[in-house]
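**Protein fold record**
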Amino acid sequence: MAEFFDREYTAREAYGRLYQYARKYRGRLLVGLLAGLVTAGSWVPIFQVIQPVLRQVQRADERSHGIMPAAQEAPPASPAPPHATLDDDLKDLIKQDIADARDGKREVALPAWFDKAESYANRLGITFRDAQGHMTGQLLMLTLFVVPLVMLLKMVAMYMNNYFLRWTGAKVVQDFRVAMFRHLQSQGLHFFGRTDVGQLMSRCTNDPQQVDHVISHTLADLCRAPFEILVAVGYVIYFAIKNNMLETLVLVLFGFPLILLPMAVLGSLVRRWSRRALHRISFISSKIHENLTCIRVVKAYHTEEYEIERYRKVNQHYVKSVLRALRIELLITPSVECVGIFLIFVFVIYCFFRKIAIHEIVPLLVPFFVAYRPMKQLGKVQAQIERGRAALTRMFSLLDTDFSLPLAADPVRKASFDDRVRFDHVDFRYGEGPELTIKGVSFEIPLGSVVAVVGGTGSGKTTLANLLARFYDPVAGSVSMDGIDMRQLDIGDLRSLIGVVTQETVLFNDTIAFNIAYGTPDATREQIIAAAKLANAHDFIMAQPEGYDRVAGEKGFALSGGERQRVAIARAILKNPPILILDEATSALDTVTERLVQDAINKLMANRTTFAIAHRLSTIRNADLILVLDKGRIIERGTHEQLYTASGAYRKLCDMQMLA
């Protein structure tokens, strides 16, 4: 597994390819992101993000410039009464301000934004205050209509933000899963022989969920947090340039990137352990799949507790990786805070020794505090991005692994089989090992003939059937149909000409009718029943109340071995192909049923080409050609009579089965 999928992708590569999947949904994605910026404001879209910076800086600037002059112009204050506190002084000042405002001696200062809003409203003919300073009816009506309108706008924006981002995430995950499933369907059997089914299932189900979380939740924060930080940094640059504070500007600009350092270092560790956790959860899926597939063996050997312990250990390894990633992730935000506090300390100490005035320090410190929350949020976003990147790496590794059969650039279309199939000096091996499974095999299968192959276990019989169906390609030599190399034929046309009954009968968890009609979707119920009768399956099917609508169960678990075999034979009969591959086609049937099915197969094989594999030599006595395989080589060939008379390997096989 590792040799196939251990690949690394940079963040740009991973998320660049993710965008290709999200690109066709960019309209809704953009609407969701813009709605997210609207929800960043409590009252006014986007402005609330900037407002804290401007409001706090404005107040700080007014205080730093206004307090000292006011103190200089004020007349000497009368001595404070004994035991007076600062709170008492503030209370007295507030009471005096209220009294002066009531007597018309002084106006209570209003925020700058209110004055600006009133100025704009006056231009539109709307007044906020009458001559006595009281609220006008126009302001009341404006408040009653505008506030609910803004609240409604925010609620709609919040709904659109959540819905469109989650909608996009769900659609992208759907496309990912379909793409990976399509990719798996295109792979050759060689690929599945070397990979773990549970691992593949996990990559197609668990990993896309991490990507969904990035799009649905993290993406909105990723857009808002940097925006808020850029506003704060932008104001610092503006203020420093305006007040000719270039040294301070350099210090601030060099300090901000330091905050990104712990996110980068710890983020890479989060990605590493998240990827390991995803890898280990694949083992959980694999273990469940293996256990349920082999549940008969587990029950037979009474190893339930042993299997539970194995499963517990696999889960323990997974939880260990998850907790390690979690511990590192939880360190990101405190690390960012520590760096931020350190930078503030450095800045304050620098200002102290450089004798920088208070009214210059405060406007520069305020953006630090405004950017504090988005900095913390960015740390959490970084962890989620790295988790998503770990999942993307695993998914793209699968998509970039290709063990599919090479297809001709300009394939030859073929609708019929007209002459013969020819194996010409064919060599084949499984995997990359030096040992050949098939060695220099040559023979022909003329149209309408029956060619049978026999031999001991591991002699290469099933491999020849796989080469004939082009489940694999030979490493040397060729397999041709009507003089055309099968590698040049359209793969769909080739498979439509071949019907297969495999040694390991596989049924889908659907109705018996569905399983018989699989590969022939336009078959009628009458045709399905006719095929079942030829395969001697109709009687046992109708013995149950559900009949052809009976569910076969997982891999045909609800049927006996002989019943599964007959359903598979009915499937091949219904397809009615010109070439039949019968791999141990009657090996699971009892003697009586075998004779009935063999008669049906003999009728079906008339004027058709049949390649049959059997250990029961009685099923192939009438074959036109019998090939005897041993260790991947043809050691004998001929008819039953010829081979039996020769007293060679075939004669020994017959004698072992007591065939005279």
